Amino acid sequence: xxxxxxxxxxxxxxxxxxxxxxxxxxxxxxxxxxxxxxxxxxxxxxxxxxxxxxxxxxxxxxxxxxxxxxxxxxxxxxxxxxxxxxxxxxxxxxxxxxxxxxxxxxxxxxxxxxxxxxxxxxxxxxxxxxxxxxxxxxxxxxxxxxxxxxxxxxxxxxxxxxxxxxxxxxxxxxxxxxxxxxxxxxxxxxxxxxxxxxxxxxxxxxxxxxxxxxxxxxxxxxxxxxxxxxxxxxxxxxxxxxxxxxxxxxxxxxxxxxxxxxxxxxxxxxxxxxxxxxxxxxxxxxxxxxxxxxxxxxxxxxxxxxxxxxxxxxxxxxxxxxxxxxxxxxxxxxxxxxxxxxxxxxxxxxxxxxxxxxxxxxxxxxxxxxxxxxxxxxxxxxxxxxxxx
Length: 389
Known about the structure:
The protein is of the alpha/beta class. It is built from 14 helices and 8 strands. A 6-stranded mixed sheet has the order 5-4-3-6-7-8.
């Protein structure tokens, strides 16, 4: 086996990259010294991920940003200069988790320096009760930006998927001309094709009902607001607002820990919804489902979406009986273990298996998949459950 010769410039670039990855420990073996912007990037990384106690410019990484807001604000500015937004968001999250910087987010100048994303919103909501008034408006502005961005991303796709599902679920056999579903009509009448006329003569028309003229479906989003579900709470609030704006769907949003709060009257503004939540605390799924069950008036036209990791602090058997009763009445019931971009979280597998045995599947769902899940529920067809592997 032969290898291509490597020129000096390429070799130096490889050493530079390895040096940035390995962090300058004497054992990294590169022998490469950083300077200029590379040294500054290394310092920003070292402040978060390094191990040494004393930094040496361009040589060793040193963990620690200090406890002062100015030092952290400078660091936030540095990483936004040197790294793309996707990397900045990861580093911010790591800084909050590894170095305990959450309380510094209570200072307005800090909030103005961060790269806003769903995880930052979750952190702010968990600090909501401790937030001074001087910070609250800045925090709302940060949350508003994230929510607006999410609505732009998710609104069109959600409306398209659900409008189609509502129309299909209201399909009628004697449609008016402008209500005819031509694709399905042609497919249903292919056997009546007349070769001499090169056309299909339909004997049966398939059409859509006018689902948009009246409320045809009721959707209940029942959302666990324990601390581990922060991202799910953010996405559920945005989707709740989108669903509530559709005339064909009557939407209710219920959040719970050991208590239950109905936030339906705030759905015109998902930021108000989010600041009405209280992340943290215990979990009583049974109590939440009891409330949701009491609000259902048209079970055959109702979809209940439980968003929870299923770590039940209430009465497990009662919870399962409630789900079984709703299913028996005709309710479409689905459990989302998470509504986030990050896949399946830790969850109670025994409870998930018990729900699956009731034909109420439990699975993690990304925001991009959520419209398809809701469309399947509305049409009463199998859910597009992602591959767990």
